[in-house]
Every structure is written in structure tokens, then in C-alpha cells.
Amino acid sequence: MAARDTWQRGQRCGWPLARAKLPILRWLPHYSLAWLQSDLMAGLTVGLTVVPQALAYAEVAGLPLQYGLYSSFMGCFVYCFLGTAKDVTLGPTAIMSLLVSSYAFHQPVYAILLTFLSGSIQLAMGLLHLGFLLDFISCPVIKGFTSAASITISFNQVKNILGLQGIPRQFFLQVYETLRRIGETRAGDTVLGLACLAALAGLRVMKSHLPRAACVEPLAARVSHLIVWTSATARNALVVLFAGLVAYSFQVMGSQPLTLTGSIPQGLPPFQLPHFSMATPNGTIPFQTMVEDMGVGLAVVPLMGLLETVAIAKAFASQNDYRIDPNQELLAMGFANILGSFVSSYPITGSFGRTAVNAQSGVCTPAGGLITGTLVLLSLAYLTSLFYYIPKAALAAVIISAMVPMFDAGIFRRLWRVKRLDLVPLCVTFLLCFWEVQYGIVAGVLVSGILLLYSIARPAVKVSEGDVLLVQPGSSLHFPAIECLRDTVCSYALTASPPRSIILDCCHISSIDYTVVVGLRELLQELHKHGLSLAFCSLQEPVLQVLLSADLEGFQHFSSREEAELCRGAEAGARGEAPSTSSSESLLLPEGLTQ
């Protein structure tokens, strides 16, 4: 009996924990046939999008095209069990592919090891609940990075639109070489590439202006609406299929004016541990050297992957009225990348475009990812021979079409109107990303951090003049700010005519540290030398406890500003100081800032 009771208690305790760590247990018991129909349609639609995009993004990453497909199925399966957002799809993206091209040096072994290490870091962050670190990457830095990435990735594909070979990957050299060799343009690639771009743009506009189909409409109208909607949603697959048919037709006729993708190995990737060293003609590169080569990429890649996934998940959760667990998302990303490295995947993250397609297709649960992943596996097993005829210009058009909407030109105007100082990290990130992506991101984060630290070190201070001087810091006090506060208080107290005592209004101060306590002790002593006093009012309980524990000589505090002013005014009258005939306020901002 005791053993049975113990087992039942364990079941009651273990089930909530299992539901928390395996979100699939929350919705699977309620799964229905209606959900299955919606998930099946959404999974197929996303699958038709992911296959051509995977091939195109592998080109961006500088890897053989099959690695794009290798990276497109494991995330779908893992997220079905561990993800908390029904809409999110994991896989290769343009941003992550650009980062991989910078840190994997176009070597699959490096890319796969980067996947394993990034997943391990993400998993550790999830277990330690370190998702808050993403909050230190500000919106201007993200916007600067994505806007620069949209330009660099798009221009990187111009060579395929023009049919040029041997163009370097560094952005400025790329621009120079493309313009220098513009006369070598292949007419076939250019015509097909521009036609694909026009078709993709037209289908995108068609979808955005497509009205909703009403249930009362005739069956033929609803079927027509479904056909048009499906065609516009799966536009990438349709355009690539059309371009492949054109290329195959030329091949049959015995002439080929197009640059083709070429042979892609058929079959599923082997399930194996990633290689922790790499054999080269000059010897073996050990694990330590590979890690040193990847350098800052081991921080940038996992952080940007998490940032992209969590941002997308939060956006669609808000839009579709459900909640996500950010730390669980970190666990899902970590497991997806670790297991992905066993099937030769390069780092993956949430895809905004495919997540939007998933949501618009009416997906009900993460089970839609099982359908998408299965479709990718079937493509690898049976269809790779057909990918030979896909023109590179068509894949380039798919990438450019996906990248153009990512450039947010309006962010510059909005920041100029709202907070001009935020243009600094935006522009630093934007410009340096054209040189090297990692330099742009790191520099943007550093500039944002400096601006944040400056605001902490130089908080705004409001000074109200009257019988006594009322000084009100605009935010919490930390050790970099105490010298600034001391200088402000002393300059106002001692230069006033006559010199006046100070009331420090602490209503905005929620915490202080030991250095601040030391600075306040020195301020009390300095004012006391000149026959002036310093009183505190509106102290919050944690701050009051710290100051009482410090046992400051001459420490006085009042519960409200009115009580402090009344008491200090009475003291000033008792000393025979002339009352002030006017009252004014001034707001001191950090040096270099304007209101």
C-alpha cells in the first residue's frame, strides 16, 4: 500500500514536470481530425516553400546545395515535441546562412561542428535560464544588421542573375568585380532571373490583395480562391519548377544558355557524430584550432539564432493569442541544432517567411512540422536528380525576393523622429556589417552598451528651488552616478544665495550599492562643514534598509516630500534665513544630451 501511494505521488509530481518540458503533452491528448486536416495542409504548403529555399540558402552559406536540405528536416521534428509556438518552423534562413558563410569558411566540417557547439551553448542557456541576455541586443542593432544583411545577401545573388563566375564573397570586392565584369553577362541567365523576380513579385502582390473567401460563395468560387491562394503561397516552388522545365527543354534541344545547379547527391545523410577534427592535404586540423578559427562566431551564431527564433515566436504568439515559454524555446533550439549536427545540418533558426506561411495556412499545432520534415526527406530520397536542372538564376531570384522585404528604410526616419541617439548604434551596425558581419554586430552591441552605461552614470536630476533645494534623481543610483550627483548637489547648495540645505527625493530610486552609500556619507560630511544639512524623503523600503544599516552620521529621512519641506522650512526660519520669494525648477540631463 505504501509503495502504491509513493508511486501515485510520484505520478502527480512528475506529470506537470513532463508537460512543462515536453509541450507536445499539452496538446496531443486533445488532437482531433479537424486539426489533422489543417496541419496536413499547412505542412505541405510550408514544405513546398522550404525545399527551393533550402537549396538557395545553402548557396548563401557557401556550402554544397544538399546541405540546405540536410538542415531542413530535423528542426521540424524536434520542434514538434519541444516547441511552444504552433506557428514557428525551424530551418535554414538567409541571416543564419550569411553568418555560416563568415564562420564556417565554406567547409561542411566547420559548419556541422558550429551547429553542434551552437546547439550546446543554446541548450546550456536554456537550462540556466539565461534568455535575458538577448535583451542586451537592442532593436536598432537588430534592424541595422537585418537591413545590411538584406543588401549584402541580395547583391551576393546578382552574380547568379548575370551568370558571372568567380566573383569574390567580400561585399566591397564583390561590387567592384561585378561592375568591372558587367560586360560578361549571360543573356539567358539574366532574362530568366528577371522573369522569375517579376513572377515572384507579382504573386506576392496577388496574395496580399486576395480577399477572404466567404462560406456563402459558390463552390467554384471557393475552389478558384483556394487555387490562387495556394499558387501565391507556394510561389517559390512554382517559379523554381517552371524555371527547371525551361532549362530541361533547352537541354533536350541540345543547347543550354542557362547556368544550372548541377548534380546533388541523392539519399539521406548518414546519422553520425560531427567530426571534431578535419583532415587536409597538409595534415589534420585539431578541434582546438577549429574552435579558435570560429572565434566570436561561437557567441554570435547561437545568440542570433535564439534572438531570431524568440522574436518570431513572440510576434506570432501575440498575433494568434497564445503564450510561449522563452526558456523552453531555448531548449528546443539547442536540441534541434545538436541533433541536426548528427545529420550534417548547418545552424538553423526560426524562419519568419515560412512561419508566416505556416500561420496563414491555418496550422493548429506544431505537428505541421512533421509533414514539412517528411516532405524534405522524400525530396532527398527521390527527387534530387531533378534538382540538376534548376537554374541558379531562379534560386537567386527566390533569395532576392525573400530579402527585399527585410530592408526597413523607415527605421531611419522613425528613430530620427523618436530618439535620434539610437541612430548611432543603428548606423554603426549597418555600416560595419558591410565589412564583416561579426564586427557590425559586436560594435553595435558595444555602442548600445556604452549609451546605456552613460545614462546610468549620468542620470537626469531635477532641482527645485525654494526655502530648501529639492533634488530628485530621475532613476536608480549606481556607483558610476554618485560623483555626478555629489557635484550637482554641492554646486546648487553652495552657490545658492544664501546657501541652502538639501532634500533628496528618492522616489525613483529602487536600489543603491555600497559605493553610493560611501558617496552619500562624504556628501553629508561636506555639507555639514558648510553648516548645511541633507535629508532624504520618499525612500523605498530596500533603499531605507541599506542606509539604516550603513549608520550614516546625520542621516535623516521623511516619509514624504511635503513633510520634509515643512520640517526644513521651519529649521531655515529658526536660523533666520530669508525665505525665497520665487520657486523654479531645472532639469539637468547627461552632458551631450538634449531634451
Structural account:
By secondary structure, the protein is mostly helical. The protein folds into three domains: 1-29, no CATH class; 31-135 and 180-208 and 231-275 and 313-408, no CATH class; 459-574 and 584-588, 2-Layer Sandwich (Transcription Regulator spoIIAA). Helix content is 61%, strand content 6%. The protein contains 26 helices and ten strands. The chain has helices at 2-21, 24-27, 33-61, 66-70, 74-82, 94-103, 108-127, 139-156, 158-162, 171-180, 187-208, 219-233, 235-253, 287-294, 297-319, 326-341, 352-360, 368-383, 392-403, 410-418, 423-432, 437-457, 482-495, 514-529, 541-550, 561-574; strands spanning 90-91, 278-280, 283-285, 349-350, 461-465, 469-473, 502-505, 534-537, 557-558, 584-588. It has a six-stranded mixed beta sheet with strand order 9-8-7-6-5-10. Strands 1-4 form a two-stranded antiparallel ribbon. A two-stranded antiparallel sheet has the order 2-3. Helix 3 (33-61) packs across helix 13, helix 7 (108-127) crosses helix 15 (297-319) and helix 23 (482-495) runs parallel beside helix 24 (514-529). The longest helix is centred in the first third of the chain and has 29 residues, at 33-61. The relative contact order is 0.14. The model is unreliable at 6-13, 578-584 and 589-595 (pLDDT under 50).
Question: What key attributes describe this structure?
Answer:
6-stranded mixed sheet; 3 domains; Transcription Regulator spoIIAA; two-stranded antiparallel ribbon; mainly alpha; about 600 residues; about 60% helix
